[in-house]
């Protein structure tokens, strides 16, 4: 059996680079030779929660090794993401080869590097899902006729940076939070107004900027206190809708009268694979999600042009070596030493 190098979970909720079988694509799947991978917080968290023997990693860019009857060509440059460490079906891209559904990759434009392509898929998909499916906001293809406010809390996170860009392309008035040192970056990405979340009065600043008319918010931080603050920034008369990337519930906010009209919803991007999903504390999933898969396939078809024209700018890249250096990157991220950038690794 042909083998490859892969980052695999081991006993004690750790991981190590090991020899693993090269996966074989099934019906509707392709085999990709991985050239670069990008690190997400979900990767090191998955190691801590997974049994031994799972291949780690979600975001990748590479070349088609086995088109397996699909419309892709051998050697064609593609990128996408998988649910790393999943078992049914087995998935993980911190490896020399990986399998993915043929409809869930996008062709990398010639002007875009493997590194830049690798940092897009998972975070971009999360932003798309939160803004346009969960919040139901206008899409860039049919932007709002008149701008209304949207709050992107955690605008310099990987997901937040894509959310800022997408919301601006959708014709909205984008208020983003981030540390003062990143305010210039947020404005370059399209934020109309920026607020330092370290300010004591950041909630009041948002209410003033939105003239107490904020009804939509995407909390890319989703710690309890951040979601409480976001909910408090919504319209005091109309309330509004907050989407979180971690499992949060309205009951956690407390019994303040201002929260009675607030809807709190969590979203998990792995529903784009269309399969029934059980994932930690997320409680609004379970059955098949073909609509989420179709929505992601639509945006995969739009991504190449977005990237080629600069409509969407990839997150800032920081190369950290090869597959043997990924565990070092996990430590940096766990220690909070990765800010406004994505760690990438050269695999082949």
TrEMBL record:
Entry keywords, A to Z: Oxidoreductase
Enoyl reductase (ER) domain mapped to chain residues: 12-345
An example Gene Ontology molecular-function term: oxidoreductase activity, acting on NAD(P)H
The UniProt record lists the keyword Amino-acid biosynthesis: no
Gene3D superfamilies the record matches: Medium-chain alcohol dehydrogenases, catalytic domain (3.90.180.10), NAD(P)-binding Rossmann-like Domain (3.40.50.720)
SMART domains: PKS_ER
Family listed: Belongs to the zinc-containing alcohol dehydrogenase family.
UniProt name for this protein: Enoyl reductase (ER) domain-containing protein
Species lineage: Eukaryota, Fungi, Dikarya, Ascomycota, Pezizomycotina
């Amino acid at each position: 059996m042909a083998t490859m190098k892969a980052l695999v979970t081991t006993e004690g909720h750790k991981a190590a680079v090991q020899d693993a079988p090269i996966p074989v694509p099934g019906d509707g799947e392709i085999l990709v030779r991985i050239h670069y991978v990008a690190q997400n917080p979900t990767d090191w968290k998955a190691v801590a929660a997974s049994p031994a023997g799972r291949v780690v990693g979600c975001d990748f860019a590479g070349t088609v090794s086995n088109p397996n009857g699909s419309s892709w060509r051998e050697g064609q440059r593609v990128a996408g993401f998988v649910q790393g460490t999943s078992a049914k079906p087995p998935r993980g891209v911190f490896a020399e080869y990986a399998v993915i559904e043929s409809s869930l990759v996008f062709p990398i434009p010639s002007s875009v590097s493997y590194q830049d392509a690798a940092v897009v898929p998972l975070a971009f998909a999360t932003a798309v899902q939160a803004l346009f499916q969960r919040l139901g906001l206008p899409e860039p293809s049919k932007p709002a006729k008149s701008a209304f406010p949207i709050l992107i809390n955690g605008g310099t996170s990987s997901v937040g940076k894509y959310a800022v860009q997408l919301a601006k392309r959708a014709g909205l008035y984008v208020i983003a939070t981030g540390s003062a040192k990143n305010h210039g970056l947020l404005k370059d990405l399209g934020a109309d107004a920026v607020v330092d979340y370290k300010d004591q009065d950041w909630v009041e600043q948002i209410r003033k900027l939105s003239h107490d008319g904020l009804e939509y918010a995407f909390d890319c931080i989703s710690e309890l206190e951040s979601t409480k603050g976001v909910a408090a920034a919504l319209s005091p008369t109309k309330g509004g809708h907050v989407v979180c990337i971690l499992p949060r519930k309205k009951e956690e906010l407390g019994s303040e009268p201002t929260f009675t009209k607030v809807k709190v919803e969590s979203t998990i991007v792995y529903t784009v694979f269309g399969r029934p999903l059980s994932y930690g504390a997320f409680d609004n999933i379970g059955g098949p999600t073909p609509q989420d898969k179709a929505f992601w396939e639509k945006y995969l078809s739009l991504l190449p042009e977005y990237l080629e024209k600069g409509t969407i700018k990839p997150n800032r890249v920081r190369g950290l070596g090869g597959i043997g250096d990924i565990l070092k990157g996990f430590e940096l991220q766990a220690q909070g030493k990765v800010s406004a950038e994505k760690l990438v690794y050269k695999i082949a």
